[in-house]
Amino acid sequence: MTIDHPSFGRIDDNRVIIFDTTLRDGEQSPGFSMNLDEKLRMAKALEDLGVDVIEAGFPVASPGDFESVRRIAETLKETVVCGLARSGGKRDIEAAGEAIAPARRRRIHSFISTSPLHMKYKLRMEPETVLDLIASGNQAARRYADDVEWSAEDGSRTEPEFLCRCVETAIRNGATTINIPDTVGYATPDEMRAIFNMLRERVPGAEKVIFSAHNHNDLGLAVANTLSSLDGGARQIECTINGIGERAGNAALEEIVMAIRTRQDKFAYTNGIQTPKLLSVSRMLANITSFDVQPNKAIVGRNAFAHESGIHQDGILKNAQTYEIMTPESVGWTKTSLVLGKHSGRAAFRDKLASLGYQLEDAMVQQAFERFKILADQKKTVFDDDIRALVDDETRDHEH
Ligand code: KIV
Ligand code: ZN
């Protein structure tokens, strides 16, 4: 099955569109605001990374947001630039339309809540009013862009019958992408798969649009839910660098992309991401926001390709595939790091001595190794200079 899309033309069924929302949903989380200059730098880096769509902001939210979306729209050459708007807000859609106008390729993303809880307490609207606003919002959005995405906020907690009616209304009124967010990170992988399967089976016109997954990480399931949404037929994934986003964050771009690439046996999808650039984009975001990535973060955390235990180091030195499922170079690291600590073994110690330029006899290596183990018990990290000092001491003792 192929789809003819206003921004991407004919898309193969196994092509996954990467929609990055670092600059919108990511930026919305406490402490992660970025200024115009920082947003522009990030947008250029994301385009260079190969993302298909950049959600650049929520133009009606503030003059600063409007300005950043507009400048990003003026600057990017290839990537689709998207502005967010509420379906019910006339001014929202005008602001989004004006902000993205300079872009070579542009999209408006309109959304409204569809779950009983959100309609009753947040919107205070009847379901029929929500349907009317979906229709009028999408019609208004189409005046500014052929590429219109519509989202059912809190979609995963929406009653199936009503969700089908909303999606049908959105498609009839011009949506070309339909996004079903798990806004509060409540759904499980099997549920997300079932929602997409149901919509594709039951909604008239479903075959003409791209379905999109947007998963939050409140239960740590955002990436798993995104992968199972692909299984249910979604072909756009919404994600952020380092998984930043509201509360526990959004699905992390680097994790999804590397899961697809590493497990092609299960996820036979393609995308345009140049994975060796992942680490530098992750670091750029960490620098801009002043939030370090946790050391054990998959792909981009500093321990993602680091090994301290002797058994693992020995395995890595014999064949890296024993303990690494992707190469560090494939995501931007220069090499695997064998960290010397109290768990390290002789093989890694010998390797370290060689890399520091020492050629010692076996007996000397053994004595130096014993000294190293005593030191490692006292220190969290053993640095190269510690090793040098230790070998120099050992050589001196040996000579006397
Ligand atoms: O999580 C969510 O529901 C959203 C929508 C605005 C798409 O971010
Ligand atoms: Zn979100």
From TrEMBL:
EC number(s) per entry: 2.3.3.13
Record keyword Amino-acid biosynthesis present: yes
GO CC annotations on file: cytoplasm
GO molecular function: 2-isopropylmalate synthase activity; acetyl-CoA C-acetyltransferase activity; manganese ion binding
Reaction equations catalysed: 3-methyl-2-oxobutanoate + acetyl-CoA + H2O = (2S)-2-isopropylmalate + CoA + H(+)
Pathway field: Amino-acid biosynthesis; L-leucine biosynthesis; L-leucine from 3-methyl-2-oxobutanoate: step 1/4
Co-factor requirement: Mn(2+)
Assembly description: Homodimer.
Described function: Catalyzes the condensation of the acetyl group of acetyl-CoA with 3-methyl-2-oxobutanoate (2-ketoisovalerate) to form 3-carboxy-3-hydroxy-4-methylpentanoate (2-isopropylmalate).
Listed name of the protein: 2-isopropylmalate synthase
Species the sequence originates in: Neoasaia chiangmaiensis
Residues included from the entire protein: 1 to 400 of 523
